[in-house]
Amino acid sequence: MTTPDGTSRRENSPRHDETTRYVEVAAVRRDGTAPAGPTTAIRLMGLLPTHWTCTAEVGADRVRLRIAQGATADRAEIRRTVSTVFVDTALRGWAQEA
Predict the structure, then answer these.
(1) Which of 98 and 53 is assigned the larger pLDDT?
(2) In terms of residue numbers, what domain contains 75?
(3) CA 30, CA 20: separation in Å to the nearest integer?
(4) For the whole model, what pTM was predicted?
(5) Do 86 and 94 form a contact (C-beta atoms < 8 A)?
């Protein structure tokens, strides 16, 4: 689905109830020659553990993920894992937003 501001929203799993807690992670393109947001969103989500549930808002130069916390991953583990994912060469030109 494309929103009025031109970003795309995608989910990789069914909707959760309102009690689900999320960790938000944003990536920004620092190098104009790096692949655009849609390609990077796919790469980023592909590098995360497959059992994690997340949604993505994708723009040309920014990707925002909302990763569900649960029994398999708490906030600290999600942040640690995401930090290690950003060293992968598939995400070259992109940086995790502080």
Answers:
(1) 53
(2) 13-96
(3) 32
(4) 0.77
(5) yes
